[in-house]
Amino acid sequence: MEHQINEEIRDKEVRLIGDDGAQLGIVPIAKAQEAASAKNLDLVKIAPNAQPPVCRIMDYGKYRFEQAKREKEARKNQHVVEIKEVRLSPGIDTNDFNVKAKHAMRFLKEGNKVKVSVRFRGREVTHSSIGLDLLRRFADTCSELGSVEKQPKLEGRQMLMFLAPKKDTPKKAPNKKGGKKPEKAE
């Protein structure tokens, strides 16, 4: 939202706030602009819907810089939750299952959601209970880092389940690629 500054303000009178935050009262616009130019600062309309509109004397360039800095900091601190997928098959072996579970736990530790799917091929879909047991076992394996957000459900030829990270798990900082590993001191 862009603010009206200096000559762009067309109101007859405004409620004026000084550069130190003090209320200067309701004054004609010419007097407000004069006060701002006397201090080598800008007159900025900060509350256009008020009666009369509220204007403040400030350095507008510095204000915009500070605002942009705050927005950038807020963007840097927010974490976008991604949905990572782990695919299983009904006849998965124990070691493959453990590797997939380890991947899912890493995703949950990073704060991402995990979509676990079991794909049935051919006549395997008639034994969907095998896939259900497999997904429940997978959820139990990952239970310390994540909880079941959406229960296993058969959709067409695949069974889906969603895991969400638990709230109390600390989020690990994302890996920085391309950085050198620290050398060991001997």
- Spatial strand order of the main sheet: 2-1-4-3
- Main sheet makeup: 4 strands, mixed
How many helices? 4
Q: What portion of residues is helical?
A: 25-40%
What does this structure look like?
The protein has 4 helices and 8 strands. It is of the alpha/beta class. The strands form 2 sheets. The chain has a 4-stranded mixed beta sheet with strand order 2-1-4-3. The longest helix is centred in the middle third of the chain and has 18 residues, at 60-77.
Quick take:
This protein has 186 residues and is α/β, with parallel strands linked by helices. Helices cover 31% and strands 28% of the residues. Strands 2-1-4-3 form a 4-stranded mixed sheet. The protein has a 4-stranded mixed sheet with strand order 5-6-8-7, covered by helices on one side.
List the SSEs and their pairings.
Blueprint lengths: L12 E5 L5 E6 H10 L3 E6 L6 E5 L1 H18 L5 E6 L5 H16 L3 E7 L8 H14 L4 E10 L2 E8 L21
Parallel strand pairs: 1-4, 5-6
Antiparallel strand pairs: 1-2, 3-4, 6-8, 7-8
What are the defining features of this structure?
4-stranded mixed beta sheet, 31% helix, 186 residues, alpha/beta
